[in-house]
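Module 6 notes. Inverse folding takes a fixed backbone as the condition and produces residue identities as the prediction. Think of it as a translation problem where the source language is geometry and the target language is the twenty amino acids. Below is one complete input and output pair. Work through it position by position during the lab.
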């Protein structure tokens, strides 16, 4: 059986009805992301047992770690977009070559960034205001950032599976990382008495095992639709450029979300001290959990939009955009309601030790307000993912810049600090900024699709 006869049902699925493809692709993605976030929450819960300083240290490292993960996901998004467009255009040879180029990028970029982050980690943490938590933060970050290539490779390999509609294995790989992590965390932190560095080692070991399994599937088992054997590699600066046109904006978007988290942390410290950062860190972990269905749908839209664009099919592109927004809005309403109704129960999970019990009421009220943030997300994120899918990464980046860095930050500053509303004002600014920015992104994507229709009608 030749490579391009394998996984034929996945290819038929991503080139067929966009609604069915979005549901089929997003469900496994949601499961795998749910496991990652569950691990993040469990990680926070175990680390919270070490006291508020350790939990705040994770809060300071998380934005940097998201940049790291964003690197892999950025190159992955570039690969996913390129491969999906070549599959849509029925160009098997270039689809293979695009996959191989993304792996080459993964190695080169990992080496550069590992050196940069390890050299500058201490000044970065000082700049972020880590203060008395810096020792915890340094312990954790040296281990995590030394193994950058594992996290970047994991993001790229998983995107290669997604680009050909093989969500099952993309999901299994992520699930292995998360489940192993949940098991190893308490063993390394408490049983082996390694403290916060134990949490870091648990993360590294889990990701390494998952990466080895994906490597076996790609080159050992050798049963993908794509054929990523070195013989299919033919260097092309156009493919590097094509990947980076999505990868760079996508990675910068990750940096923007991190910059937003750093800025919000600083505003919270001004408004109410480091305890407010601990409350926000715990609350945002729950908001991230609530965002999983939306990111799952968004990731599916990237592939479906890429295939539709490559096949010059404006109707499928239009359907993918509008259907994804309707579906994610419906889910957001359900999730937001659960967050409000169960705020107290959720908050108590993070305050199970005497070191952190006094945070419970603050976390509950933060969750009730931030449930509105979940409702504001769908129009912007789905429009961004359509732009990434069609290879217009810069458009996606502009939407994120407007929404997160400009509107959310400025409005949080105005409501929280200038008007003196404190922590609640900061939350209000974040919600309003997200909502207004998302509407702008939605209108822009609609215009883009209308133009694409005119050209291809």
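Target side of the pair, the amino acids:
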């Amino acid at each position: 059986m030749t490579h391009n006869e394998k996984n034929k049902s996945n290819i038929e699925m991503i080139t067929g009805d966009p609604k069915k493809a979005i549901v089929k692709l997003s469900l496994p993605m949601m499961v795998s992301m749910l496991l990652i976030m569950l691990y993040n929450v469990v990680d926070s819960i175990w680390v919270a047992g070490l006291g508020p300083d350790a939990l705040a240290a994770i809060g300071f490292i998380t934005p940097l770690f998201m940049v790291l993960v964003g690197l892999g996901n950025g190159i992955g998004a570039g690969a996913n977009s390129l491969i999906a467009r070549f599959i849509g255009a029925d160009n098997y040879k270039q689809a293979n070559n695009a996959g191989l180029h993304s792996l080459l990028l993964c190695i080169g970029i990992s080496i550069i960034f590992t050196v940069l982050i390890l050299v500058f980690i201490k000044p970065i943490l000082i700049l972020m205001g880590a203060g008395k938590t810096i020792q915890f933060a340094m312990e954790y970050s040296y281990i995590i950032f030394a193994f950058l290539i594992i996290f970047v490779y994991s993001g790229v390999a998983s995107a290669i599976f997604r680009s050909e509609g093989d969500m099952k294995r993309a999901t299994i790989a992520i699930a292995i990382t998360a489940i192993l992590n949940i098991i190893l965390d308490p063993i390394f932190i408490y049983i082996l008495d390694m403290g916060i560095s134990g949490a870091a080692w648990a993360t590294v070991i889990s990701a390494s095992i998952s990466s080895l399994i994906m490597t076996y599937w790609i080159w050992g088992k050798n049963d993908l639709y794509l054929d990523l054997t070195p013989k299919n590699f033919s260097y092309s600066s156009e493919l590097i450029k094509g990947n980076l046109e999505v990868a760079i904006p996508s990675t910068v978007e990750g940096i923007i979300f991190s910059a937003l988290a750093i800025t919000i942390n600083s505003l919270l410290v001004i408004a109410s001290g480091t305890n407010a950062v601990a409350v926000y860190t715990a609350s945002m972990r729950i908001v991230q959990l609530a965002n999983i269905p939306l990111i799952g749908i968004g990731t599916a839209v990237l592939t479906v939009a890429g295939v539709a664009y490559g096949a010059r099919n404006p109707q499928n592109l239009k359907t993918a955009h509008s259907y994804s927004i309707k579906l994610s809005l419906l889910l957001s309403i359900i999730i937001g309601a659960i967050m409000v109704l169960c705020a107290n129960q959720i908050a108590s999970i993070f305050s199970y030790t005497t070191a952190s019990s006094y945070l419970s009421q603050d976390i509950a009220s933060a969750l009730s307000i931030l449930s509105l943030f979940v409702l504001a997300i769908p129009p912007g994120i789905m429009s961004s993912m359509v732009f990434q899918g069609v290879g217009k990464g810069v458009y996606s980046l502009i939407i994120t810049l407007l929404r997160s860095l400009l509107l959310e930050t400025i409005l949080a500053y105005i409501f929280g600090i200038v008007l003196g509303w404190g922590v609640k004002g900061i939350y209000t600014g974040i919600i309003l900024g997200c909502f207004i920015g998302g509407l702008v992104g939605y209108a822009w994507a609609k215009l883009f699709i209308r133009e694409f229709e005119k050209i291809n009608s």
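Reference fact for the lab report: DSSP finds 16 helices and no strands in the chain.
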